[in-house]
Amino acid sequence: MLQEGAHGKWTVSSSDESTEENSDNEKPSTSSLLHAACGRASGPQYPCSEARKAAHKRKASPLKFSDKSFPAETRLAEKQRPSQEGLGWCLSSSDEEPEDQEKQAHKETVKEEKNDAPKEHPLNFHKDNELSENQKAEECCEAPSEAQDTWDLLNGGNPFRFFLTKVRGIKQNYNSGALHIKDILSPLFGTLLSSAQFNYCIDVEWLVRQYPQEFRKKPLLIVHGEKRESKAELLAQARPYENISFCQAKLDIAFGTHHTKMMLLLYEEGLRVVIHTSNLIAEDWHQKTQGIWISPLYPRLPRGPTDSSGESETNFKSDLISYLMAYNSPTLKEWIDKIQEHDLSETRVYLLGSTPGRYQGIDKEKWGHLRLRKLLKEHASSVPAQESWPLVGQFSSIGSMGVDESKWLCSEFQESLVATGSSVTTLLKYGVPIHLVYPTVDNVRQSLEGYPAGGSLPYSIQTAQKQLWLHSYFHKWSAEVSGRSHAMPHIKTYMRPSPDFQKIAWFLVTSANLSKAAWGALEKNGTQLMIRSYELGVLFLPSAFGLDKGYFHVKGKLLSESNDPATSFPVPYDLPPEQYGSKECESGNIFCTRRSGGREPSAANLLLI
């Protein structure tokens, strides 16, 4: 739907979005269990955002238009989709932050046993003959990689241990270095004893099916941020599974979400940590661009370790324990003890997290963008003429950042991202360029999923109209380098490339979108950092990989005959990014969502989610 405004036309989708300026997130579904049962065919059977529910509904029951009703370009996505036969995985990126979070901060018990679920629940999650078409398609597409290929991925020529998820609908060769969740949970990675899954949007039944048959009854802890009805739905999903327990993350600050995406996998052989960007739902592992970091297999320490035993040069172990302690959960204390018993010294990345709270003094530097600032100051090397090295941020959701760039983006946030051993203030005087990568409407329309991919790209029209200045920073999504130009990004990345985009000073993959809720905002004249949400990512710095020049080379196209050094970093999208043109900025091609007010969206809007 096109809306006229003072600065041109806007493309608007029909998903529910909050008008609150302080949030980039959408409200998780809070429909009742009975309503969920009655509406089984029209929506996903797991708590999720309204935008994602609307996209799911339209995929299940698309409107049919005659060729005469709309111009040919509205059907371009379907025409351009390649045949699914003989092709590989399609990446799914549905990790949006809920933007309509309720205002009251409601404290609830952190651990929830499955017997706390309602006594009666009308859904039967185990009737194979009632599987939806999406589930049946998912089962056909979920076969894990060949065992040897997966083993080579983990132990071969990938020093960064950074992977993309498989995408169905692209050339198979572009999936040769990618993983599906079934690969990660495969016995090839270890003999599983127990696991913990930290996430935002979770389909319990689907998640259980991703584990090999022999591991499906092993203890599984799900760490989530759901409340009230959506929490009851989550607990009800797990009712048939006696091995599943829950830990509810405290969200005491309004509009916060539990957005972290992490797996803790305990094996007979050791421990593994996986930090990624995908929700635990089928769509996110199907046709979206997602990122994964997989740790080495951490061996168990000899008996009687000290607190500093098994620490890496990046302090990953202590930082991971500090992050888990921030949940203040007795349940997670068990996992902290397990981590303490293992040797994490081979880790070469830095952990970067956000946890809800208001932090002062030295505590400010533990989380969010101030944590990134501290890491870059202490461990990033200066390079000649670094003031001309731009910043690139790529994300799938956008929050409110104020009436102009000086309020947050080009002040405190930019200061953190340009920090090195040199003076931040000096660099800022040069106005370091900022390139923000966010899909256009054409990107979405021509994607493998078509317009439903927009359900994972929440950007409120109300917020967008209050920060028109931001759109001059926008750049299109293009990923020919990884074969994923048509797999919409749910991955979030930030980096500092050289002016010619052949080198990068650092690279971050994270769950954090472009918002103050995720990264934090300074208050009280800069003496306090306020963060609303849980987020987690890993930072790659050249010094941690034995490179003394202060940068990584950027790896070339996946299928090209390049002579890239082994330490070239595989940036998953094209550099330099292409800036939005006047068409995108002024003619309705900024992909936004609007609040539907609880009404069914009109036919015109159905094309634009």
From TrEMBL:
Subcellular location, record wording: Cytoplasm; Nucleus
Residues of the active site: 259, 490
Ranges that cross the membrane: none
Keyword Protein biosynthesis: no
Keywords assigned by UniProt, alphabetized: Cytoplasm, DNA damage, DNA repair, Exonuclease, Hydrolase, Nuclease, Nucleus, Phosphoprotein, Repeat
Biased composition (Basic and acidic residues): 101-126
Coiled coil: none
Site keyed Interaction with DNA: positions: 515
Xref: InterPro entries: Tdp1 (IPR010347)
Name of the featured protein: Tyrosyl-DNA phosphodiesterase 1
Binding site for substrate: 261, 492
Biological process according to GO: single strand break repair
Region Disordered, residue ranges: 1-126
Function: DNA repair enzyme that can remove a variety of covalent adducts from DNA through hydrolysis of a 3'-phosphodiester bond, giving rise to DNA with a free 3' phosphate. Catalyzes the hydrolysis of dead-end complexes between DNA and the topoisomerase I active site tyrosine residue. Hydrolyzes 3'-phosphoglycolates on protruding 3' ends on DNA double-strand breaks due to DNA damage by radiation and free radicals. Acts on blunt-ended double-strand DNA breaks and on single-stranded DNA.
GO CC term, one of those recorded: cytoplasm
Highest taxon of the lineage: Eukaryota
Native source species: Apteryx owenii (Little spotted kiwi)
Matches recorded under SUPFAM superfamilies: Phospholipase D/nuclease
Subunit and interaction comment: Monomer.
GO molecular function, one term: single-stranded DNA binding
Family as reported in the entry's similarity comment: Belongs to the tyrosyl-DNA phosphodiesterase family.
